[in-house]
Amino acid sequence: MASYTKFEYFNFTFPRPFVAHIEVNRASKMNAWIEPMWHTLKKIFDQLSEDPQVRAVILSGAGEKAFTAGLDVHEASTQGITTRNLKSDPARRAVYIRRHLLEFQSCLTTVEKCEKPVIIIMHGITIGLGIDLASCCDIRICTEDVMFAVKEVDIGLAADVGTLTRLPKIVGNYGWVKEVCLTARYFGAQEAMQVGFVGRLKVAELLASKSPVAVQSTKELLNFSRDHTIEDGLRYTGIWNSVAVQATDVQEAMLSGLQKRIPKFEKL
């Protein structure tokens, strides 16, 4: 745990065995994100992904008002990418901005690529970057007071770090996605649950009790199959499981069921 206490803007606890809890900690600014935060996020999830002491990750926000108010608009307008390289011609500025956006996208994608399942718990204001981040997580949970919005059109741009790509695949309803993205309107917990964006159960401890080989394999295969054909998914699953089924976890899981005891799995 000591190695996780050095990151600015994030708190760490380990509330249950093999469960890591990360809390975005900029509550005085409603957890609005500035550039150093998303670079730090990548470092954190790169480390969590390879940590054998972690089998499930919870992500939440500090303070009572918001999970996040999204991107810190003041910081972006005064120190952001559009304020840099102003002496360059439009083509060079465009290259510079594109590289910056791709880096930003990559930092958030690290959450999706984390080998461990990531559960996000959202409350209060959860807009803009909050939706981008939630869309990278495996399981989304929210409180009754949550207020969601894909807010980017209200600041004059299209969402550009993941929502427009991931959200339609999560809920499977392009009409609803287009409506909330084009209008930037708020929607609450009940609507989010109805369309399948969030669920009800808190499952981190349950996930951490399962075989880490099985859980991490399942996440990898689901993410791969989402973006490929059925045939590709079946082929990849066959190749993956030809190795994974040789894990001692399979025998341990079966024996523990027969012997009516809690299984014990090696770290991964």
From TrEMBL:
It comes from the Eukaryota. This is Delta-delta-dienoyl-CoA isomerase. One of its GO terms (cellular component) is mitochondrion. Belongs to the enoyl-CoA hydratase/isomerase family. Keywords: Acetylation, Fatty acid metabolism, Isomerase, Lipid metabolism, Peroxisome, Virulence. It holds the Pfam family ECH_1. The keyword DNA-binding does not apply. It is found in: Peroxisome. Signal peptide: none annotated. GO terms for molecular function: delta(3,5)-delta(2,4)-dienoyl-CoA isomerase activity. Pathway: Mycotoxin biosynthesis; Lipid metabolism; fatty acid beta-oxidation.
